[in-house]
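Below is the data:
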Amino acid sequence: MQTKKPEIKARICEAALDEFYEQDYRSATMRNIAKRAGIPTGLTYTYYKNKEELFDEVLRPALHYIYSKFDETGSLLGKEKKEAESDFLEKVLQWPREIVILTEKSSGSKYHGFTEKLRNDLAKHINADMSKRYDDYDEMYSKILATCYTASIFRISKEYKSKEWADKMVKYVNSLLFFREIQD
């Protein structure tokens, strides 16, 4: 049995991230990923049994963070509400290419519905808070805000320039969507 080397595994993952980002899940091939990594195609199968397993590995850090931040009611876990929302967006943007892959390039994979799931989780989070604060609160507002918020995450990820730039965009999004009281 061949010894797996961490540096080869890292090259495969980086090459796969590039391939999935530039192509998409369906168009990416293990042959092209191996070529990008500078290794024989067969060696990729020593590390990953198929493209789906490699896709999972490449997306794992971003997905783990996102899915670990919501409890069963859809509320963001952790700090105070405002801090949790701001922290969530800032942290998600550590993985801009992975977010683009999940939202625009995952067709044909088990993550195809990622955008809708994230939007629904965020809507539940917003609804849980807003329905406590307003007697006549309409759930549609949560859906609208969640749609705007996810669209913001996706657009910032797609246009990503630098961490400083993304942090600035996050501040704008959070101040406009979450930190102002509803005016009657």
Confidence is low (pLDDT under 50) at residues 180-184. Residues 1-49 form a domain with the Arc Repressor Mutant, subunit A fold (CATH 1.10.10.60). The chain has two domains: 1-49, 59-177. Residues 52 and 109 are 7 Å apart (CA to CA).
